[in-house]
């Protein structure tokens, strides 16, 4: 039975869980708090790399027997299978919990109801569905990887007021201000990977690393180029950050380029050709198979258009600057073929915020 304080404690657990976003893949970013007699005993969230799990971390902070008769608030169904660690459901049972409140079930076939069943069979009261909508929003990437086979995709577009990302001569640094660029770093921090197209990799020589966000796991750096035409100098080839480099390419990529990047520790993912280059739907299935749950696409325009064309964009984050570049400027999206307005992808506005001298607007996919 739901109790009046359940939402308050679950909100805390959800807040803790978000600390793991971008850090825990392929595992979900889970939060857990343990409460007894209205007092917080311990809290935890899934740590970088996915271990320890939130429940295990919270329980480890308590002396033996301290959790007996307490309530645990967990944002995702406790695991019921033995992997690198014993099942979290077993740990909660062993600790003597009287009650476990869960936001959402885990669709992973290895768990999917078994964790809840284990708790109930041990005589523990189980309550589900508390702040379920918030939990599904936070866990969207993990849920999509399990149920659809691909990660959640966020498309970031930073442009002039009239939707341009560079002048007619190609100058693009910087259209938006320093506060907006810092916000982009925060976006990177909450995603498992950062993706750019081959033209962006060639023209901007981006590092795609996380900067100014403290000691956090670096995102995977992904570049997409059918012919593996990625500069063999610059940050992706030469930096020592330790951030992984994954390159998505087609069958036509020359062996010499494959050998070069393999020798530098890059992971190569070959996908089939698609109508406008590579089959990006297949590419994201490959990324999901590799364990990624949240991917931030930072452009350029051709890549952004290709993702919209295959309907894999779940969120759009736009940064708009108060500058006009005109029709000769480079548009933030490449060509898209939608004969009718009703055919175009549509997104719903969820947030608008001033960031320095720029405007950030956040949109989510509209599903009919």
UniProtKB/TrEMBL annotation:
NADP(+) binds at residues 158, 174, 200, 204, 300-306. Converts 2,5-diamino-6-(ribosylamino)-4(3h)-pyrimidinone 5'-phosphate into 5-amino-6-(ribosylamino)-2,4(1h,3h)-pyrimidinedione 5'-phosphate. Residues 4-127 form the CMP/dCMP-type deaminase domain. It holds the Pfam family dCMP_cyt_deam_1. GO terms for biological process: riboflavin biosynthetic process. Its cofactor is Zn(2+). It comes from the Bacteria. One of its GO terms (molecular function) is zinc ion binding. The keyword Secreted does not apply. Pathway: Cofactor biosynthesis; riboflavin biosynthesis; 5-amino-6-(D-ribitylamino)uracil from GTP: step 3/4; Cofactor biosynthesis; riboflavin biosynthesis; 5-amino-6-(D-ribitylamino)uracil from GTP: step 2/4. This is Riboflavin biosynthesis protein RibD. Substrate binds at residues 172, 188, 208, 211, 298. In the C-terminal section; belongs to the HTP reductase family. In the N-terminal section; belongs to the cytidine and deoxycytidylate deaminase family. It comes from Litoreibacter meonggei. Binds 1 zinc ion. The active site is at 55 (proton donor). Its EC number is 3.5.4.26, 1.1.1.193. Keywords: Hydrolase, Metal-binding, Multifunctional enzyme, NADP, Oxidoreductase, Riboflavin biosynthesis, Zinc. Zn(2+) binds at residues 53, 79, 88. InterPro entries: APOBEC/CMP_deaminase_Zn-bd, CMP_dCMP_dom, Cytidine_deaminase-like, DHFR-like_dom_sf, Eubact_RibD, RibDG_C, Riboflavin_Biosynth_HTPR. It catalyses: 2,5-diamino-6-hydroxy-4-(5-phosphoribosylamino)-pyrimidine + H2O + H(+) = 5-amino-6-(5-phospho-D-ribosylamino)uracil + NH4(+); 5-amino-6-(5-phospho-D-ribitylamino)uracil + NADP(+) = 5-amino-6-(5-phospho-D-ribosylamino)uracil + NADPH + H(+).
